[in-house]
Amino acid sequence: MLTDPIADFLTRIRNGFMGRKETIDVPASKLKARLCELLREEGFIRGHRMVKDERGHDAIRITLKYDSNKVAAVTGIERVSKPGYRKYVNTKKIPQTLNGLGVAILTTSRGVMTDRQAREKGVGGELICRVW
């Protein structure tokens, strides 16, 4: 049993990029699917789709993104808010990642969104992760 499925999700993505994999499979959830949508919108992954794994469970197949020289689109990915230590921020305290080159992902009362979207809408929330 996993105590932090989001940390497992981020670690699978990190390991996939380090292993130069083309695709990776992660157990499915609505939050993970939304995180994949945001990562695709921000240009960190090529895409994702729902599949069934060999045991018949729902999974998300993520297509990782590399440039023509096989350099990964993601150079760093880290979990910020953890089960033992939740990190909440208000609108004025939403951090920038690498001066705007990266993205922070938050879960807010209006759904899961990037730091830029949260600033535009004027909402804060739980800081899930940072990607650059």
Describe what is shown at a glance:
By secondary structure, the protein is of the alpha+beta class. It has helices spanning 5-18, 30-41, 115-121, and strands at residues 23-27, 45-52, 58-64, 77-79, 88-89, 103-108, 111-114, 125-131. Helix content is 25%, strand content 32%.
Mean pLDDT: 96
Oligomer: single chain
Low-confidence runs: none
Secondary-structure content class: alpha+beta
- Overall geometry comes to globular
Rg on CA atoms, Å? 15 Å
List keywords for this structure.
132 residues, alpha+beta, Ribosomal Protein S8, Chain: A, domain 1, Dna Ligase, domain 1, five-stranded antiparallel β-sheet, three-stranded antiparallel β-sheet, globular
Tell me what the structure shows.
The protein is of the alpha+beta class. It folds into 2 domains: 5-64, 2-Layer Sandwich (Ribosomal Protein S8, Chain: A, domain 1), CATH 3.30.1370.30; 77-131, Dna Ligase, domain 1 (2-Layer Sandwich), CATH 3.30.1490.10. Helix content is 25%, strand content 32%. The chain has 3 helices and 8 strands. It has helices at 5-18, 30-41, 115-121, and strands at residues 23-27, 45-52, 58-64, 77-79, 88-89, 103-108, 111-114, 125-131. The strands form 2 sheets. Strands 4, 5, 6, 7 and 8 form a 5-stranded antiparallel beta sheet that branches. Strands 1-3-2 form a 3-stranded antiparallel beta sheet, covered by helices on one side. Strand 6 and strand 7 form a beta hairpin. The two termini are 29 Å apart. The model has no long low-confidence stretch (mean pLDDT 96).
